[in-house]
Specification:
mainly alpha, 3-stranded antiparallel sheet, Ribosomal Protein L9, domain 1, 2 domains, 7 helices, two-stranded antiparallel sheet, Methane Monooxygenase Hydroxylase, Chain G, domain 1
Length: about 200
């Protein structure tokens, strides 16, 4: 592992929509490489210390970019899976796979709490007459059809969604919005559709 390897990985990650295939121990190998560079900084000649400092600074910058890009993809995949699509993060390292599973679990729990609060209230206010499923159950079942998952690119003031709920969203939030609202925000370049087909 060296700076040239990292730059190649960075370039591939920028081009790839999904996660490029990396070794499961990728982050551990980066740790060993960074540690070796830090040891070099204690060299005896000024020139070797300056070279090590420069390489270390560049390596940290490249690693930071790779990490941000890959984690963004992991978050997108975890959100998509939590909202019902069966997807597995191919190419994920062991660290990223663990994060993916934790995020899916966390998003599902939060979504379940929100569903409970929203739909239980709606079911009590408007009970459906006759046999069959109530509206709340139908809404839960069709949430993927009526909503679009988006990542927010800029802070957005509070607005009323087509579903009658108020939304206050900040940059980098991931949210399921009514399709009409999601389309309008994406059209204004303040959100991007991250629904995985």
């Amino acid at each position: 592992m060296d700076l040239e390897d990292l730059r190649l990985i960075q370039a591939n990650e920028r081009r790839s929509k999904g996660l490029q295939m990396l070794e499961r121990s990728f982050y551990e190998k980066i740790g060993a490489y960074i540690s070796a560079l830090e040891d070099k900084r204690h060299g005896t000649s000024d020139s070797s210390v300056m070279m090590a400092d420069n390489e270390l600074r560049n390596a940290k910058s490249v690693v930071d970019d790779i990490f941000k890009r890959r984690i963004g993809k992991v978050i997108k995949m975890a959100t998509t899976k939590a909202f019902g699509l069966d997807i597995h993060p191919e190419g994920a390292t062991s660290v990223e796979l663990e994060l993916f599973e934790q995020l899916v679990d966390l998003i599902r729990k939060d979504k379940s709490r929100m569903d409970s609060a929203i739909f239980r209230k709606g079911a009590q206010a408007k009970p459906r007459k006759g046999p069959g499923k109530n509206n709340a159950t139908e809404k839960r079942k069709n949430i993927g059809k009526d909503f679009t998952i988006v990542r927010i690119l800029k802070d957005i003031p509070v607005f009323m969604g087509a579903d009658g709920h108020s939304y206050k969203l900040s940059e980098q939030d991931v949210a399921a919005l009514p399709k009409i609202n999601a389309k309008a925000l994406c059209g204004r370049n303040v959100a991007e559709d991250i629904t995985v087909e």
